[in-house]
TrEMBL record:
This is VLRF1 domain-containing protein. Residues 59-197 form the VLRF1 domain.
Length: 226
């Protein structure tokens, strides 16, 4: 559920005597009722949170969005939510009969034949090109977040010793959405998502926030994209 008025929502949280904990790596607020976790509020990238005052303020932020699947990737640089540059990458790295990437195949079948070596070579260039593009953004622009969607299998191949893009970068932010087909339009949709504050309610407390929802205006009620 999208929370449009963050100040109003935080005031409601305080009146309910709930507690908040800020998780910086995920830029989200975890909401507690005593010892129970009742929900998470994923904050917009355009907001900063003050854990002492329990308040949010608008902030000018820049970020990269990276979406990766086997053979297809999209990466874009956004200044305060506006896409300034983007690139889509494609590579021949999927075995047609098995329908799996060459990397996954080699992990289960061992050494490759000629066709497999071609796919593996394309895979290496695919990841090298992505790292080079992100490194270019990191070297040329002030970046606050690197939002990404990538499977665990492919993730290690994105990094190189020479590039500026490193797997321990504290700006990394895993997008809490599944991305099936990376592309320019999907980059824009994820960017829109990152500029919203999304409340995710714990399954065992589906009605916990109903009193807050009741005081929201009708146009703010049904924006759930989870």
């Amino acid at each position: 559920m999208v929370i449009n008025n963050i100040e109003k929502f935080l005031d409601w949280v305080l009146t309910k005597q709930l507690s908040l904990s800020y998780i910086a790596s995920k830029h989200k607020l975890r909401i507690h009722d005593k010892e129970e976790i009742i929900g998470d509020l994923w904050l917009s990238f355009n907001l900063s949170f003050d854990p002492i005052a329990n308040k949010v303020t608008k902030a000018e932020k820049n970020w990269i969005v990276l979406l990766v699947r086997a053979g297809t990737a999209a990466v874009g640089y956004f200044e305060e939510g506006i896409n300034m540059e983007h690139k889509v990458f494609r590579a021949y790295m999927v075995r047609k009969k098995q329908g799996k990437s060459q990397i996954k195949y080699l992990k289960t079948k061992g050494k490759s034949r000629a066709g497999s070596r071609v796919r593996l070579g394309a895979s290496e260039k695919f990841f090298e090109d992505i790292n080079n593009k992100i490194s270019q953004y990191l070297n040329n622009y002030p970046i606050d977040y690197i939002a990404y969607s990538c499977s665990k299998t492919l993730w290690p191949f994105l990094f190189s010793a020479e590039g500026s893009f490193k797997k321990d970068d504290p700006r990394l932010y895993k997008v809490p959405q599944h991305v099936q087909e990376p592309g320019y339009e999907k980059l824009l949709k994820i960017n829109d998502f990152l500029q919203c504050s999304n409340l995710v309610i714990e399954e065992k407390y589906p009605d916990y926030f109903s009193s807050y929802i009741d005081i929201e205006s009708p146009e703010q009620e049904d924006n759930d994209d989870w």
